Amino acid sequence: MNKKEKATLKLNIANEEYIDENNELVFKKLVYNPLLRAMGLLVLLIFSLVNNERIMRLAALTSNAIFSSEVVLGHVTYYTILGVTIGLCLVISLASIIAKSNIDMSSIEILRFSYRFYSIYDMVIFILSTFVCLFFIIMILITPCNISGSSMENTYSDGDRVLLWNIGYTPADGDVIVFDSAKYVSNENSQSRFYIKRVVAKEGDFVEYRSNILYVNNQEVEKISLIEYYIIINSINVSNTNSFVVPDDKLLVMGDNRSISHDSRAIGFIDNSEVIGKVLFRFFPFNKIGNPEPDFK
To answer: H or E segment at 223?
Structure first.
């Protein structure tokens, strides 16, 4: 800053009108900026509450993928930070309105304090709102998932981390999906209630059982016992038949490691509504990044 600029600044600081104008500007920011942010986050909160069940699942899945725990960044953490951020914005906006009517707007000390306060507020709220929005985007668009167990070996292994696509996804035969198994099994002794399996049959597919082998659309899938077949057909209220068409909104799933996988042979058909998303590709470990071909065993 040269001498002329310093002199101009010194003159402005001594000018009450200049100080008053800048105080007005800062207080407008302190009133309207938090309100706008609060409105945006309120829309996010309403959308989340409307889709609360899905948000709970996605938050648990994301938290498990990042921290190997479903609660560290679970839905409670998400809603808490979202609520605190909205509350802070509204309090700051209201406090600024009240303070403005009770202070000397021509005071240089007030101007210095208001600038300092706005800088701190802007940084804190930016960090909180950015975290909430990023976490929401990660959950809703492309969700990370931690694979637990060996039911998908040799295609995917225990400890692999994958990304799921879940917006507008419609299951197709052969897709690898992640679904919430809480409705079908007790997971008290399991690391996660989220199962990763391959879609064997979807709604409208023709399923047939002959010579102890399960066929889907006349393609051989797997050799299964009669008891396992009864479990499958009883889950959709079909009995005493060797062939049927898969009902609407139902999926038959199996793990690629067929010898140990706990899947539709034990729990029957699952509902489309329980599907979290389709596996896009594996991003960890880094030496196995990609979308592997099915490798059954």
So the answer is: strand 219-223
pLDDT at position 189: 53
Can you tell me which residue has the tokens 């059954």? Answer: 296
Structure confidence at residue 212 (pLDDT) = 93
Q: How confident is the model at residue 191 (pLDDT cuts 50, 70, 90)?
A: low
> Which one-letter DSSP state was computed for residue 221?
E
**DSSP per-residue letters across 140-175:** HTEEEEE--SSTTTTTS-TT-EEEEE-SS----TT-
Q: Class for domain 147-284, per CATH?
A: mainly beta
> 3-state DSSP call for residue 185?
coil
Contact 198, 256 (CB under 8 A): yes
pLDDT above 80 for 120: yes
207-243 tens-digit pLDDT: 999 999 999 999 999 999 999 999 999 999 887 789 9
d(CA 208, CA 217): 8
Residue with tokens 């016992």: 225
Which neighbouring-strand residues pair with 290? 282
Return contacts of 231-239, CB within 8 angstroms, 24+ apart. 231/264, 231/265, 231/266, 231/267, 231/268, 232/264, 232/265, 232/268, 232/269, 234/268, 235/264, 235/267, 235/268, 235/269, 236/268, 236/269
Residue found by looking up tokens 């596996």 in the block? 279
Which residues are registered as beta bridge partners of 145? 162
Rounded to 5 degrees, what are φ and ψ at 220? Answer: -65, 135
Domain range summary for the chain, segments of one domain joined by +: 3-140, 147-284
Give φ, ψ of 258 to 5 degrees. Answer: -60, -25
For residue 212, the 8-state DSSP code is T
CA separation for the pair 156, 282 (Å, rounded):
8
Give pTM, 2 decimals: 0.77
Active site residues: 151, 197
Output the CA angle 251-257-262, nearest 5 degrees: 55
